[in-house]
Amino acid sequence: MAASRWPDGYRCPRCHHSEALELPGRLLWRCLACGYDTSVTAGTVLHRTRTPLTQWFWAAYLVTTHTPGLSALQLQRQLGIARYETAWVMLHKLRRAMIGPEREPLHTEVEVDEAYVGGPEAGLRGGRALVNKALVVAAVEVRGKGSGRVRLQVVPDASGLSLAGFVKANVEAGALVKTDGWQGYAPLQGAGYRHRPRTQGDPHRGTKLLPRVHRVLGNLQTWLRGTHHGVGHKHLQVYLDEFTFRFNRRRTPQAAFQTLLGLGAQRGPTTYHQLYAVESTG
Ligand SMILES: [Zn+2]
Questions:
Q1: Of 36, 63, 119, 155, which has fewest CB within 10 angstroms of its CB?
Q2: How many whole angstroms from 257 Cα to the centroid of ligand 1?
Q3: Share above pLDDT 70 across residues of the chain, in percent, rounded to a whole number
Q4: How far is the CA of 261 from the centre of ligand 1 (A)?
């Protein structure tokens, strides 16, 4: 943990001295020059927790590597945690570390499409009864034959304001943006993008025209159905962020592990109240 915290070696936050006395029982490092105590867990999800750190490490490992995602009940069983609420709080604190605007926009070449999710089947755009479904728009970077990073957003409708607005917020200007022929993407041409809309006569052709984004939306649908048994609209964006976090770090699980525990970045620890506010307001 100390190595994650101070990758270039310990530095006293008060006087910048580089030598400290370790007090491992209390997870403290005491500066040999000024006597200032630094907690190794301060600013991480592990700060002042009563749950053993090894359980946190296991939980972060499972959340990072268990690609279909993990429910609180599964986590409780996997780790032999006595109380369901403990597992729930751990899982949601780790999830909260996945929420966070990823700043660097997608670039170069991107596929964009949208789909209704949350119900038993993926829906089609327009005209149908779509109770309990939410519209999600997705963008995926094209990297050779594979996919790069992804962005996912719940949007209120399939209008130009929502769909082109999503692209503007998440994709670098000048990028080549591939979509279907839906008018909601028409504003992209005048917005600094190289927009390449394709008309879909046969609905099955969509899979060939935009294969990456269709794969992502399909995987998302499967994951939401399988793991979370129908997610309410209020919480859907949180689950989209979790999916995005894991997808975008699928080749660097060790970095994901550290980010989740707050060991990599300097992120403030989540209090129970913040956590509960996220859950209840969504
Ligand atoms: Zn000092």
A1: 36
A2: 30
A3: 81
A4: 25
